[in-house]
């Protein structure tokens, strides 16, 4: 409707412009009649020079045979015959209005009407459109997947067997409730998917929609939040009403933490609107009778900030944990995302899975996509292992920056630095095997040493942490050993080493002096591992003890790195020379130095 009215408005404007334009141009196109007296015309008629005479009211226009036009006015009472102009002498046509002179009059009347009318019409439509919008405001924008349009299924989700099992049960509940009710089991009201970003929560929910065979309403929690207070709550009401009308149904709220945060913490600004929205969700979930076959699913990567009221039984009482994929799951995910890509026979998915410890499903998908792009750029017909390796490095370490040219001196320093890391890493038992050393800039770093764990690890010991710190300090120590000088290149290494040492003392209870106690209450996200702030909940005395212990750990680790590098100084120089020449050393070549 809105579209039509806008079109009408445009047409009116165009017509007005066309008419005005035509009225301006037209007189100059028709050759202008020359004003004369009536006697002149009579003369010409008698001389048989006139081909046509037209009469409009009192105006007489004679068209001569040479196409010239003459115009004159007769007296009102007189007719042409009175002037001796008769039809046998000349062709006469009579029209009752003088077209040329009438148009301006019509214009001057019509134009303002048209303009004002068009304007009013337009305004009216605008206002109505706004009204219609306001009426829609409280409606949720949930997308509905009908049972018919099956898109994603559990087959598209790799690994996560336990999570799938749990969700399969939920689907069963909806399909055949009697089976469960006969045993007195209640249908769960809410299922909360918890897991780090990119691990496939949204994907899993979509798969449930595909499997369930019931209507599936999907909405992101952030869509509840609008500029106006109360809209979120209205949308929640609308969404639940829709779901109930379509029961049995599943209602999926993605990114739940956007509104589900603890009320009244003030963290991130206490937000009236969010609280109202959350309250409405709680109310709606309580309002479900046991007969209502609507299951609410929600996903979050911040379960720690969710309001406890959401988590109590009767609401999101089922929790499905989704973890970072392990080795076999990574392989399965890689295979899923290579299904529509032509893979070369040399691709080794198990090897890629080993190289991508700690990456999420979304990262792995990204790697396969990057590999496809890199291959297409070189006009390859299939995706080779080498391209996948390049993609892994790009995703894990940042894009190569070949344009950043290091001076010979800087390259040498950075080579010593990296080989320092690599040597310490190779020779200390607690470090992971070296996979690759490079002095090609990537992201912010001038070079990198990439070590890879042989298998996924879940436990870290004190010895392992200390060796890791030694490896991190290896670059700094190597620079100092060779040049008796240090550079800013070690900045991020030192930061990470200090963080590990601090956590050992304050979080993991790995210092004998401090003992098994957690110091400093941190606002920390479990999954993101990012600290938001720290409460100092210990005495100043303890604080100096903590500092001492941290210093001790760093110092011991530094000594160890120095020991290793001093003992192997010739090897350090030899490997560095090779690195400067070749720019990258892969693990087989690196291992050769130790035979
Ligand atoms: P989340 O919602 O947990 O942040 P998504 O569900 O949006 O993550 O996952 C992002 C993408 O990563 C998905 O579209 C999917 O292609 C891929 N992905 C993640 N986990 C898996 C998995 N287990 N199997 C297959 N693909 C996965
Ligand atoms: Mg998601
Ligand atoms: Zn370094």
Overall structural domain count: 4
CATH class wording of the largest domain: Mainly Alpha
Show unreliable segments. Answer: 266-270, 525-529
Strand elements, count: 16
Shape: elongated
Give the strand content.
Answer: 5-15%
Which fold does the CATH topology of the largest domain refer to?
Methane Monooxygenase Hydroxylase, Chain G, domain 1
Query: How far is the N terminus from the C terminus?
Result: 81 Å
CATH superfamily of the largest domain: Peptidase M41
Average the pLDDT over all residues and give the rounded result.
83
Q: Estimate percent helicity.
A: 40-55%
- The CATH architecture name of the largest domain reads Up-down Bundle
Query: What hetero molecules are in the model?
Result: adenosine-5'-diphosphate, magnesium ion, zinc ion
Secondary structure class reads alpha/beta
Number of helices: 20
Q: What does this 3D model show about the protein?
A:
This protein has about 600 residues and is an alpha/beta fold. The protein has 4 domains: about 100 residues, Signal recognition particle alu RNA binding heterodimer, srp9/1; about 180 residues, Rossmann fold; about 70 residues, Helicase, Ruva Protein, domain 3 (Orthogonal Bundle), CATH 1.10.8.60; about 180 residues, Peptidase M41 (Methane Monooxygenase Hydroxylase, Chain G, domain 1). The protein contains 20 helices and 16 strands. The strands form 4 sheets. It has a 6-stranded mixed sheet with strand order 6-8-9-10-7-11, with helices on both faces. Helix 4 runs parallel beside helix 6, helix 7 runs parallel beside helix 9 and helix 16 packs antiparallel against helix 17. About 0% of the residues have low confidence. The structure holds adenosine-5'-diphosphate (ADP), magnesium ion (MG) and zinc ion (ZN).
